[in-house]
Amino acid sequence: MGVARTGPGGRRESEQQRLDRLWGELLREVRVALAGVQLLFAFLLAVAFTPLFPSLGDADRAMYVACLLLGAAATGVLIAPVGIHRVVTGRGLKYEAARWGSRLALAGLVMLLGMVALAVLLVLRSVAAIGDTTALVMAAVLVVGLMLCWLVPAAVMRHGGGPAHESRHDRKRPSPRG
C-alpha cells in the first residue's frame, strides 16, 4: 500500500488514501454547491411562465437569459466531476481526476456567483422597483460579500496567513523517511 506519510493536521496516510480522501471531500462539496445551483435554476426556469415575465424590458430579458445560461453552465460544470469519475474509475487516474474535478468545482462556483448576482439584480430592478443604480450597487455589494466568504479565506490560507500557518512552521517536521 505504500509508505504512510504525515499529511495535513498530523494525519498519517498513504498517497492513495490521501487521494481517496480528497476525492470524497470534493464530491461532498460539489453536492452542496449543486443543490444551490439546481434550486436557483429551477426557479429561473419557472420565471418565464409567470404573468410578470412578458412585461420585462429588453435589458431585463437579456439579464434573465444570461442568468439562465449561467445556471445551465454551472449545473453542467458542477456535475462534470461525477462524469470524469465514472469514465476514469479503475484506470489509475485518481490524481488527474481530482485535479480536474477541483478546477471544475471552482469554475462552477464562479458561474454560481455570476448567476446569483444577475438573479438578484434582475429581481431588484424588476420586482423591488428601486432605481437601476441602487440595484446595481446592492448586487455589487452582494458579489463582494460572497467573494469575501467564498474566496478570500481560502486565498489567505493557501498563501500562508493565519495561526495554522505560523504553528505549521514553528513545529519540527518529521523526516519523510520516518
Structure description:
- This protein is an all-alpha fold.
- The protein has a domain at 14-118.
- It has helices at residues 15-47, 58-88, 94-126, 132-150, 152-158, 163-170, and strands at 5-6, 12-13.
- The protein has a two-stranded antiparallel ribbon.
- A hairpin with a 5-residue loop joins strand 1 and strand 2 (12-13).
- The chain is elongated, with a radius of gyration of 21 Å.
- 17% of the residues are buried.
- Mean pLDDT is 82; it is low at 165-178.
**Integer average pLDDT:** 82
* Sheet with the most strands: spatial strand order: 1-2
Would you tell me the structural class of the helices and strands?
Answer: mainly alpha
Give the N-terminus to C-terminus distance in angstroms. 16 Å
* Low-pLDDT regions: 165-178
Largest sheet: 2 strands, antiparallel
Q: SSE order in H/E notation?
A: EEHHHHHH
Strand content: under 5%
Spatial shape:
elongated
How many helices in DSSP terms? 6
Let me know the number of strands.
2
What is the radius of gyration computed over CA atoms, rounded to a whole number of angstroms?
A: 21 Å
| Helicity level | over 70%
